[in-house]
Amino acid sequence: MKEIVIVGGGTAGWMAAISIGAKFPEKQITVIDPEVIGPIGVGESVTGVVLSFVNEYGLSLGEFFRRCDVTYKTGVWFKQWQGPGTEYINPIDSPPDYFATYYSCHLEEFYAMVAASGARLGEVQLYSQLMRANRTDHFRKADGSINDLNAKVSCHFNALKVAAWLKEIAVSRKNIRHVDGVIESFEQHPESGEVTKLRTRGGGEVSGDLFLDCSGFHRLLLAKAYQPKWKSYSDYIRVDAAIPAFTAYAPGQAVPNYTMATAMTNGWIWQVPTQERLGRGYVFSTRYTSVEDAAKEMRAMGVDPGENPRVLKFDPGRFEKMWMGNVCAIGLSGGFVEPLEATTIHGMVVQIRLLTDLFLPFCTRESIRTMAEQYNRLAVMGFDDFIDFVGM
């Protein structure tokens, strides 16, 4: 498995290229990422895995913040979910980090004590107080260094700028090359069914041993080459569309250090702060309302989607197999839940880690079928866990 071809760039494709290229310098990686098909790019609220990725692969944290409009995320502020006027805070720090001693049931005892006292669990953690004060637990020490001893902070960023930054880093690596082309067709081995080469619109051909489908909702390779069965989550996830919008900061307005999720009649509205703007949007269900009425709801909440709102349609669900033959899907090309709780990029990074740490070191033409079976088992478990998590 010396030649790895990644179909699609975006956050998934370029993260996969950087990760695999760093851990397997002997492998040649080709990323087919056409300039004419850009990523969705509506802004992202993510978990801590992205900052971990930046640190693990020796990327510059300062450059990441400067180049990608990154802001701190200390938690998620939910409004109206238990009725008008209600709210609850979900801080993302870990109470045991501040305990003098630690043992296995310490956290459960702590929460039991809090509940018995009548306090709300989300309000007793440090980050809930920092969210209300719009501060973080990073501060400059006397020697000029930054204290982040217990910091569990995550981040928000501009997805388009992240993809561009990661691409710039990736193509500077000796074993990663970029092909600017739109895939028109592919060839499969007549006996094994494995994909052998891809053809681009300009007549170019790219051969490979293993193909990673990072083409997002376009699903250009796995779905077309193998037609895996689709498992719908529509009985559990009712929303199926989103209208993104952007709002400029008012003069002097402070940048929030949290994601906000506000319940609506037919879904919920997100608010994701980047350095340049507030990313906002309405995730809703077309079963219960129209695009026009959803846009009216947004305007009533002070969110302007514009004259001709951009509508993103999605089908919550996943393929029953995300690795078939020699094609493995990463991220949206294999499935999608919904934007709540930032599971999309989190799951994508976990999939990349599964490949680099568990499967690629041992993947050969003889073992690839077993590798695929194990990957599918773990990836499917992850997606089904997300359904339970978002449902709760």
Gist?
By secondary structure, this protein is α+β, with helices and mostly antiparallel strands.
Average pLDDT reading: 93
- Into which percent range does the helicity of residues fall? 25-40%
| DSSP helical segment count | 10
Total E-strand runs = 24
Structural class: alpha+beta
Main sheet properties: 7 strands, mixed
Global Rg: 22 Å
Overall shape: it is globular
Low-confidence stretches: none
As laid out across the biggest beta sheet, the strand order is 6-5-17-18-19-16-20
Describe this structure in words.
- The chain is of the alpha+beta class and 392 residues long.
- The protein is built from ten helices and 24 strands.
- It has helices spanning 10-23, 49-56, 61-67, 106-116, 126-133, 159-171, 222-226, 291-300, 343-359, 368-391, and strands at 3-7, 28-32, 44-45, 71-73, 75-79, 87-91, 139-140, 146-147, 154-157, 176-179, 183-188, 195-200, 205-207, 210-213, 230-232, 241-248, 259-264, 267-273, 277-284, 312-313, 317-319, 323-324, 327-329, 335-336.
- The strands form six sheets. It has a seven-stranded mixed β-sheet, with helices on one face. Strands 10-2-1-14-23-22 form a six-stranded mixed β-sheet.
- A hairpin with a 7-residue loop joins β5 (75-79) and β6 (87-91).
- α9 (343-359) packs antiparallel against α10.
- The chain is globular, with a radius of gyration of 22 Å.
- The chain starts with a strand and ends with a helix.
Topology:
Elements: E1 3-7, H1 10-23, E2 28-32, E3 44-45, H2 49-56, H3 61-67, E4 71-73, E5 75-79, E6 87-91, H4 106-116, H5 126-133, E7 139-140, E8 146-147, E9 154-157, H6 159-171, E10 176-179, E11 183-188, E12 195-200, E13 205-207, E14 210-213, H7 222-226, E15 230-232, E16 241-248, E17 259-264, E18 267-273, E19 277-284, H8 291-300, E20 312-313, E21 317-319, E22 323-324, E23 327-329, E24 335-336, H9 343-359, H10 368-391
